[in-house]
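Protocol check, entry for the methods section draft. Step 1: assemble the input record (protein sequence plus ligand SMILES). Step 2: submit for complex structure prediction. Step 3: store the structure tokens unaltered in the notebook. Ligand used here: adenosine-5'-triphosphate. Step 1 record:
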Amino acid sequence: MAKEKKTKFKESVGLDIGSHSIKLVHLKRLHEGYKLLNYEMKSTIPEGLDYSPSDLSPDRFAPVLAGMFKSLKINPRKLKHLVSSIGGDNTSIKQIKTIYLPDDELESALFFEAKKHLPISGAEMLLDYQVLGIEEKTNNMNILLAATTKDLLSQHSQILTDAEAAPGVVDIESLAVTNSFALNSYLEEGIYIILNLGAHKTNMVIYGPEAKFFARDIPWAGYHFTREIMKRKKLSFEEAEKYKKEYGLKEEKVTSDGKTILSLDIAEKTTAEQIAMEVKRSLRFYVKEAGNSDFRKILMTGGTAKLLGLPEYLEENLNLPTEVYNPFANLEMPEKFKDKQDPQLALALGLAMRPE
Ligand SMILES: Nc1ncnc2c1ncn2[C@@H]1O[C@H](COP(=O)(O)OP(=O)(O)OP(=O)(O)O)[C@@H](O)[C@H]1O
Ligand SMILES: [Mg+2]
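Step 3, stored output:
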């Protein structure tokens, strides 16, 4: 969503601290565009742990992050342009329309508007906004509201300071996902659906150059696929992760009892079905709210975008062309990274390319 502005920094670091893994992208700014200097991706799940989400401690992030700075030879104390993100529960984003308000009234008016529109309690809320435009005919303003809680932001800052980095710009995940797409693609008219499929959640964004912006987080993603495999095949978490990466949703060879993994339990909705259902629901809501159904394409990013068979599954179920998005398409790449373009890094890239 960020507008093109003059940028001063020469190098930037985008940092995506996900519940499963930390992704760091180090870019150099060129006269036009960016060059990838380095990147790293590290799991934060302790080895051998058959976890449920509540077993994971927020203390696990900082040591992993500190190790990444070290192996990438980045001195966190000297970082000039660090952009990181927060997402999930306690973040919220919404495009609203208000009557025209002059600058000096806007902020306080928006605070009251935000309380109406965003599910975050007033006293705890930190609010940010961006004026997207003023409608000529009505003089109404289109505004993007983004909010989080003080607690969530300070938890996030703590991870950075524990790894000896000073918090820089903090963006909301769904905005960074949008950035990585909008700054890297030739956009035609119409509406794009971006799904950043992580481990515990999927950031869903509806975005188009002229379309109303919509974002929400769907509480289904890679962890749920793994859990499903653990249950059905009686495997440990690590075995199931491995199995998932090898077979994905593609039907595996028939097991000894003559069944395939997809046909073991049809009573319960599968994770793939849950995700497709939630996306469908949001699309229906969007059509009603925005009066626009000019959907062109679904673009998948995040670690779970690599799940074999998932793009095909979503394409068939949602009846829209679906592809895994390559966030590196317009980046200058050193030879050693050329064959390693990974959709799991899209958000971190969107952060590193934030133009201010
Ligand atoms: N090749 C692969 N095939 C299928 N799944 C994969 C593959 N590689 C990674 N994953 C899955 O991707 C998930 C991690 O993705 P990602 O790094 O985007 O999540 P995260 O940002 O840490 O999580 P979240 O955003 O939910 O907090 C894990 O569930 C992992 O099992
Ligand atoms: Mg993530």
